[in-house]
């Protein structure tokens, strides 16, 4: 998969093609010590949770959540 087909970019591209880019929102949280937090990102589309990702870096967690959301929206 190319970088434009997955993660946050893939989700944004998919929603832009449907004129629904404003439908996406993100909820972030972290646990653990301040110097090494574990991030959890939740992706919502039209207010519905479509994906959740966890990682040691915020962008990794966001990409995992975006991949899940994209698969959910495409019915995979």
TrEMBL record:
<protein>
    <recommendedName>
        <fullName>DRBM domain-containing protein</fullName>
    </recommendedName>
</protein>
<dbReference type="GO" id="GO:0003723">
    <property type="term" value="F:RNA binding"/>
</dbReference>
<keyword id="KW-0694">RNA-binding</keyword>
<dbReference type="InterPro" id="IPR014720">
    <property type="entry name" value="dsRBD_dom"/>
</dbReference>
<dbReference type="Pfam" id="PF00035">
    <property type="entry name" value="dsrm"/>
</dbReference>
<feature type="domain" description="DRBM">
    <location>
        <begin position="6"/>
        <end position="75"/>
    </location>
</feature>
